[in-house]
Write a structure and sequence with these properties.
By secondary structure, this protein is an alpha/beta fold. It is built from twelve helices and 14 strands. Strands 3-2-1-4-5-6 form a six-stranded parallel beta sheet, with helices on both faces. A six-stranded mixed beta sheet has the order 10-7-11-14-13-12. Helix 6 packs parallel to helix 8 and helix 6 crosses helix 9. It starts with a helix and ends in a 9-residue tail after the last helix.
Length: 377
């Protein structure tokens, strides 16, 4: 155990949650309530909720009760002055308000870990899936330097769209073992919780599949390139290379299905390498994959970044979505593809690794790598 781990185990880091009364904010609170390093110090929501104890401000929709240590915290408006004692601010804000609020928190020199989409395309903001590309944390100093005025502690870091997250974990594992992937076809079967609350109308989703999720396919195709790509540097300036050294084509088809939690995907890939790896080699590479979140000892990281099922009918959302508290990705049915090279099935818990859990592991990595400057409680 490192000295930093010992310090974090003894002294807690104060954190805040924006959008605390919404479904993503509630998930943050559930995960953070017993976190070994972080303690919830401030909660932010709309002016309508501000001034109330959290238990009276929220319409709680989680399967466990409101944590006792946050029930009486008074909800504040989402203004930086209420979060000045926080080393980390998690944002579960809706996209229609997240941009300006998160920008204001960064300008106030606060570290923001966002689940919203607003800054994912920003050329100075890392888009990080913590089981995949934590090396992109190296962009933070440039983001701070380019801000006017330059920042000492503040930045914005985003996690990916929930469906993208499930896809890129096995893709990264395969590229690490076998080199670049040049083509990927993915078809998603996405849970209704991905649409938020109250979400999709029952009349639309019961006994039905909706073959369209607005903006989802384009997000998957674009985000995958930023996440799996590297960082290029020219004349002292860093840029995300969007996988341009080895062009990757991604084709996504996204569907909403009558499942509560857990996004399932069928994936086919073609490798640049010829001959391509065998299905057994792919299984072995997925099992062996160990990202830094695991090796560095992040407390929220799963034991298995990718769990490979041998059964012919797994993974399934109802059976497998909460394995490892939903922090890893499940893969099954690895086999040859008659059109590309290899095909398989992926399951990722969209409300865990696809949302708040990713942000929390990103924050753990940022603390361990010294990106977050700690005042510790």
């Amino acid at each position: 155990m490192s000295n930093l781990h010992r310090i974090l185990d003894e002294k807690l880091v104060r954190v805040g949650v924006l959008g605390a009364t919404g479904t993503v904010g509630q998930r943050f609170i559930s995960l953070l309530s017993n976190h070994p390093w972080f303690i919830i110090h401030a909660l932010g929501a709309s002016p309508r909720s501000a001034g109330k104890p959290y238990a009276k401000a929220t319409n709680w929709k989680q399967t466990t009760p409101i944590p006792s240590n946050v029930r009486e915290i008074i909800v504040q408006e989402c203004k930086p002055e209420h979060f000045g004692d926080c080393a980390i601010v998690f944002s579960g804000l809706d996209a229609d308000v997240a941009g300006d609020i998160e920008g204001a928190f960064r300008a106030a020199d606060l570290a923001v870990f966002s689940n919203a989409k607003n800054y994912r395309r920003d050329p100075s903001v890392p888009l990080i899936v913590p089981l995949v590309n934590d090396s992109h944390l190296s962009m933070i100093p440039q983001q701070q330097a380019l801000h006017q005025p330059p920042l000492q502690k503040g930045f914005i870091l985003t996690n990916a769209n929930c469906s993208t997250t499930g896809l890129v974990v096995p893709l990264r594992a395969l590229e690490k073992s076998f080199g670049p992937i040049e083509a990927c076809f993915v078809t998603t079967m996405q849970a209704i919780s991905g649409a938020g609350y109250p979400g999709v109308s029952a009349l639309d989703i019961v006994d039905n599949v909706v073959p369209y999720i607005g903006g989802e396919e384009e997000k998957m195709e674009w985000e995958t390139l930023k996440i799996l790509g590297g960082i290029a540097e020219e004349d002292g300036k860093k840029d995300f290379d969007m996988h341009s050294r080895y062009p990757l084509r991604v084709s996504a088809s996204c569907n909403r299905v009558p499942v509560i939690d857990g996004h399932t995907m069928t994936v086919s890939v073609r490798f640049s390498r010829r001959p391509p790896p065998s299905p057994q080699q792919v299984r072995e590479a997925l099992v062996a994959y160990t990202p830094e979140a695991q090796s560095m000892g992040c407390p929220s990281a799963p034991v298995h970044a990718v769990f490979v099922h041998e059964e012919p009918d797994r993974p399934q959302p109802r059976l497998d979505r909460y394995y490892q508290d939903g922090a890893g990705v499940s893969v099954g049915r690895v086999r040859q593809c008659a059109v590309l090279d290899i095909k398989f099935v992926v399951l990722a818990n969209n409300v865990s690794i696809g949302a708040a859990t990713s942000s929390i592991i990103n924050a753990e990595l940022a603390v361990l790598k010294g990106v977050v400057k700690l005042p510790i409680m």
